[in-house]
């Protein structure tokens, strides 16, 4: 009799937008899950027409379609961790919150996609409020960039000390288990530094600044890698530290494609130099 070799693998879910250019969003998340040997599942919230130069169109998915994607994955396959990315508007955020609650999704990493690294606001004020009041309190790990951390903490962030103060304020105000304030939007070597706070430990996660214009997808990759590590059973801090190192390798092997900011290279051990 032929026997088939089957494997039990950890499963993670990404609830995020599609990037037609393949650099960020669902596409980056699924590659990151695969790199970590985690089976990737997805619920697409919106579809962007996007390339290395920017976004030219965004179409929201119907809320019923988002509900059904999450339900289909959770009721049959089950997930050990999930991440949220681009949620676009208040209706989508509310829908996602309800599904996370209904299916008691564990180990939730929230990348509060609100403002780009260059400071451009990506969702309206109503959506920012709903994100802060209803999704963020469910987060196990929250990963705001500089500008998102400014909005959530109410503090101006210009220095390493400001990043530390923002991480502590966000933790206290928003009741997340842990927060990682990302430094990609800072100046100089601070761009390679993130600040971690979990209510007890305040840690500086340092990697060398990578001098490349090809940084598209770093935020998505970081949050997806944290979710993958949590799905594999790592502790919160270990999951974040290892994810930060993964992003650094991926940046060092970024892809020079397109006319603008190319994406990070997710499968760097396989990329030919
Ligand atoms: N040029 C760089 N060199 C090293 N690390 C970087 C660089 N740019 C971004 N990062 C890292 O990438 C991750 C994503 O950060 P950031 O760009 O701030 O997020 P987002 O893409 O959500 O705006 C962080 O860990 C940050 O430190
Ligand atoms: C569909 C989609 N989702 C998220 C983003 C933002 O990507 P992120 O990795 O946070 O930011 P950059 O590092 O690319 O600035 C996106 N562009 N598209």
From TrEMBL:
Taxonomy, superkingdom: Bacteria
Name this polypeptide is given: Phosphomethylpyrimidine kinase
Domain Pyridoxamine kinase/Phosphomethylpyrimidine kinase, chain residue ranges per copy: 19-264
Xref: Gene3D superfamilies: 3.40.1190.20
Organism: Calothrix parasitica NIES-267
Keyword Transcription regulation among UniProt keywords: no
Gene Ontology molecular function terms on file: ATP binding; hydroxymethylpyrimidine kinase activity; phosphomethylpyrimidine kinase activity
Keywords: ATP-binding, Kinase, Nucleotide-binding, Thiamine biosynthesis, Transferase
């Amino acid at each position: 009799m032929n026997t088939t070799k089957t494997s039990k693998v950890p499963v993670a879910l990404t609830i995020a937008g599609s990037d037609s250019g393949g650099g960020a969003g669902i596409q980056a998340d699924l590659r990151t899950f695969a790199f970590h040997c985690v089976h990737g599942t997805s619920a697409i919230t919106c579809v962007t027409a996007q390339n290395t130069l920017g976004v030219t169109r965004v179409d929201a998915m119907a809320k019923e379609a988002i509900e059904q994607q999450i339900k289909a994955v959770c009721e049959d396959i089950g997930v050990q961790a999930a991440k949220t990315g681009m949620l676009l508007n208040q209706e989508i955020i509310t829908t996602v919150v309800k599904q996370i609650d209904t299916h008691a999704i564990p180990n939730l990493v929230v990348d509060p996609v609100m403002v780009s690294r260059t400071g451009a606001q990506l969702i309206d004020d109503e959506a920012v409020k709903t994100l802060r009041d209803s999704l963020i309190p469910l987060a196990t790990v929250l990963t705001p960039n500089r500008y998102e951390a400014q909005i959530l903490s109410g503090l101006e962030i210009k220095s390493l000390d400001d990043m530390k103060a923002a991480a502590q304020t966000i933790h206290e105000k928003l009741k997340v288990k842990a927060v990682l304030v990302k430094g990609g939007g800072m100046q100089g070597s601070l761009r390679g530094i993130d600040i971690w706070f979990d209510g007890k430990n305040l840690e500086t996660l340092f990697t060398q600044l990578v001098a490349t214009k090809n940084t598209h997808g770093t935020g998505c990759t970081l949050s997806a890698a944290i979710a993958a590590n949590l799905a594999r059973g790592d502790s919160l801090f270990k999951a974040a530290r290892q994810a930060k190192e993964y992003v650094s390798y991926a940046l060092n092997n970024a892809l020079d494609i397109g006319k603008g900011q190319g994406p990070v290279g997710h499968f760097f051990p396989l990329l030919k130099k």
